[in-house]
Design brief:
The protein has 445 residues and is an alpha+beta fold. It has two domains: 16-203, 2-Layer Sandwich (Chloramphenicol Acetyltransferase), CATH 3.30.559.10; 232-436, Chloramphenicol acetyltransferase-like domain (Chloramphenicol Acetyltransferase, 2-Layer Sandwich). The protein has helices spanning 2-13, 60-74, 116-121, 172-186, 241-252, 265-280, 323-328, 331-344, 347-359, 429-436, 439-442; strands at 16-23, 32-35, 49-56, 84-87, 93-97, 104-111, 148-155, 158-165, 232-239, 288-296, 314-322, 374-377, 396-399, 408-413, 421-428.
């Protein structure tokens, strides 16, 4: 196994960039400016959000041309991705687009010793970084670099598509809306199912002036940790439909009261992960542990925003308890803590959070999710396996190495379909070793 891993690392390191071009909208757009709002601004000191999709088969050169042609068309609607970050005369950040800007960066690369099945079978994600651009690049650099960079890599038997999106201008919902729309055009559609709703100030009008510079000691490593920090490991866990149903059934079998609202699939899986990660960390009973979820607020704000709202419309919801309480109680205890925090995050709570932030803006760093945290980003509701450009569904979807820290979790629609869910977790190496041996976490009978 160690030899296989070594050979794979060697193949990944043989990724060679062949060319770099830029793609602009296929029609004249003119000058456009769009103010970043309170929901966007906290993410300026995050790193670019990286996604990797890999596909089997196809002629690489034809695929590249088809993708570029489709990109020219889709950027007519999603032109903000072809722009840059800027500031107005009062120092308020905005997205700026002009026809003379260079547009989206497209890199073409080759790694023809690497097979799709090798990527699909890999349970670690750290070895993918040469397939995705902008490792360790802060969103703030969008002032002078593209807001979207795409790397298309020719594999032995397919194509790897690595994308780096500037997280200051869009969240996961907008990311996958764009990807599905691009794929729809590439499959031959004349129009997309839902054009992006670009009026961010409909969600928030407050103008916040920020004086931002780069952090004094930006994290040097693309894995999200310095040399002095504990070593992190990333692992990909697959939970089948049967396993998800079993987890949900167990959490709901001991409801706090007859009037209690059933726990959702998300709440059930979230507490399953939270409990088992906390156990693997070997915390003292009195140690605090934080659960954080980046919640979509499109339907929570007043007035509600459309699903096609393009930008960030997420907020972090935090909840905390003692490790001893979380582990000594049945799983419905933790699920109830999560459920209450999510349900309490209504329009009034969002408004209060926004006002508080606007009065004293705090730019998050990607690791500010709390002590001994489990922080969930992404969602199994995103139809990531529907991103079919005309040569079939992806064989796999992964996140890159940016914005990783101890306790970061990404949830994806399961490759096996149905109610299955794929879970990417980043943990300290020692904790991960214990989690990998935890049969109850893995749902092994």
């Amino acid at each position: 196994m160690a030899g296989d891993a070594g050979r794979k690392e060697e193949e990944i390191s043989k990724v060679k960039i062949r060319s770099k071009t830029h793609v602009k909208p296929g029609k004249i757009i003119g000058r456009k400016e769009c103010q970043l709002v309170t929901f966007d601004l906290p993410y300026l000191a995050f790193y670019y959000n990286q996604k990797l999709l890999f596909y089997k088969g196809g002629e690489f050169e034809e695929q590249v041309e088809k993708l570029k042609d489709g990109l020219r068309v889709i950027l007519e609607e999603f032109y903000q991705l072809g722009g840059k970050l800027g500031k107005d005369e009062e120092g308020v950040f905005r997205v700026e687009y002009d026809d003379d800007m260079e547009g989206v960066e497209v890199l073409e690369a080759i790694a023809d010793g690497l097979a799709v099945d090798q990527l699909a079978a890999d349970e670690s994600t750290s070895s993918f970084k040469d397939l995705i651009p902008y490792n360790g690049v802060l969103n703030l650099t969008g002032l002078h670099r593209p807001l979207l960079s795409v790397q298309l890599t020719k594999l032995k038997d397919g194509l790897a598509m690595g994308c780096a999106f500037n997280h200051a201008i869009l969240d996961g919902t907008s990311t996958w809306h764009f990807m599905r729309s691009w794929a729809q055009i590439c499959r031959g559609s004349n129009s997309i199912a839902a054009p992006p709703f670009l009026e961010r100030t409909k969600a928030r009008t407050t103008r916040v002036k920020l004086e931002l510079s780069f952090p004094p000691n930006p994290v040097a490593s693309s894995n999200g940790h310095t040399d002095q920090a504990p070593q992190l490991r990333e692992k990909f866990f697959r939970f089948s439909e049967a396993a998800i149903d079993k987890i949900k059934s167990k959490v709901n079998s001991n409801q706090p009261s007859a009037a209690s609202k059933p726990f959702s699939t998300f709440q059930s899986l979230a507490v399953h992960i939270w409990q088992h990660v906390t156990q693997a960390r070997c915390l003292k009973p009195e140690d605090y542990t934080v659960f954080t979820v980046f919640a979509d607020c499109r339907k929570r704000v007043d007035p509600p925003m459309p699903d096609s709202y393009f930008g960030n419309l997420i907020q972090a919801i935090f909840t905390v308890t003692a490790a001893g309480l979380l582990l000594a109680n049945p799983s419905d205890f933790g699920a109830s803590v999560i459920q209450k925090a999510i349900e309490a995050h209504n329009a009034k709570a969002i408004e209060e959070r926004n006002k508080e932030w606007e009065a004293a803006p705090k730019i998050f760093e990607f690791k500010d999710a709390g002590v001994n945290c489990v922080a969930v980003g992404s969602s199994p509701r995103f139809k990531v396996y529907d991103v079919d450009f005309g040569w079939g569904k992806p064989e796999g979807v992964r996140s890159g190495s940016n914005n990783r820290f101890d306790g970061m979790v990404y949830l994806y629609q399961g490759k096996s379909g149905g109610r299955s869910i794929d879970v990417e977790i980043t943990l300290e190496a020692g904790t991960m070793k214990l989690l990998e041996k935890d049969k109850e976490f893995l749902m092994q009978v």
